[in-house]
Amino acid sequence: MIRITDFETDYLTYEIKKKRVVNPKWFRCPVVDSPEMQAVLCADMNTKVYGLAMLGLWEQLQRWCMRHIKRNGEFRMKSGVPMNLHQIAFAIGIQGEEEFLGKSIEVLMGVGWLSSIEGTTSVLPSVQAVVPSSPPTPKSLPFVDPADDGKFSSSQRYPHQRTVKELVRIMSKNPECPLATENPRSVETALCDAAVEGRDVETIVEGMSIYYSLEIGKDKYRTRAEKFIRNRKEDENWDSWFTDLEAKGFCAKKIKEVNDAEGGSRQEYLGLLTKYNHATPSEIMHMHKGWLCKRENAGHEI
């Protein structure tokens, strides 16, 4: 069975989630050309008509899911049975074009717009069941040097899209740092640029999760997420990403977590602050991780 990837987060508005709107008349659609859209357009290198037809089909798939929001972006019958190609084609009004629908689903899965649900039957015929994890980068996309603002072209970002999108999705579900992904598309673009530069995006995301869980990261004067990614990259270590004030705030927070969990008094907390007064965020983080491991092991022993 196939489904639209991240349907709940990307398509369901606040009003829909609160059931203030039960029959949506529209759905959100980005106006900026993404690397994925360029890949779909260039699915057939000989003509753009094929890609445009796929985009039209993609719109029909989205419209069907928005008309059936209770199915959470999944192409299934009311009974829960997965829809096959013939049923999907009938549902979106392209009966007789099942072959084109199957090829389109392969491309849309390749760029990450559609995904299959594990443990369910594939809608694609057996000869087409093997869907590439990502289609080749279209040769027609221009490959240019980075501009003065440090941004790269779509063709350079494209190979990193899938990894980055998954990291942003995981970070968006972290309740401690909701502002880290307040503009997810800008964050994805900045992380892709960082990946093109050869930087470790997982380390960057870890650093963002820390920064935006602090008071300084929740303040109205906080650094915007995309600027955090582009500007705070000296030596790729957490210590260089924090000002003195931010570093002290982070260290105090982690020390307080350990002290409170151990049942320590305020006096003991102040003693720990004095002890680790000159510690860097990375040192405190190492200490905090060690304490978590020690506590987990003690829990297993109990």
Which characteristics define this entry?
2% strand; 3 domains; mainly alpha; 302 residues; two-stranded antiparallel ribbon; 51% helix
What's the layout of helices and strands?
Blueprint: E1 2-4, H1 7-10, H2 14-17, H3 35-41, H4 48-67, H5 85-91, H6 98-110, E2 114-116, H7 154-157, H8 161-172, H9 184-196, H10 201-211, H11 215-218, H12 225-231, H13 244-261, H14 266-275, H15 281-301
Antiparallel strand pairs: 1-2
Average pLDDT over all residues: 77
**Which regions contain 5 or more consecutive residues with pLDDT less than 50?**
126-149
Portion in strands: under 5%
Q: What order do the helices and strands follow?
A: EHHHHHHEHHHHHHHHH
Could you give the count of β-strands?
Answer: 2
Largest sheet: 2 strands, antiparallel
The computed structural class is mainly alpha
- Total helical segments: 15
Termini separation: 43 Å
The radius of gyration over CA amounts to 24 Å
Helical residue percent band: 40-55%
**Reading side by side through the largest sheet, how are the strands ordered?**
1-2
**Coarse morphology:** elongated
Total tally of structural domains? 3
Characterise this structure.
- About 25% of the residues are buried.
- The protein has 3 domains: about 1-130, no CATH class; about 155-240, no CATH class; about 245-300.
- It is mostly helical and about 300 residues long.
- Residues about 125-150 have low confidence and may be disordered.
- It is built from 15 helices and 2 strands.
- About 50% of the residues lie in helices and about 0% in strands.
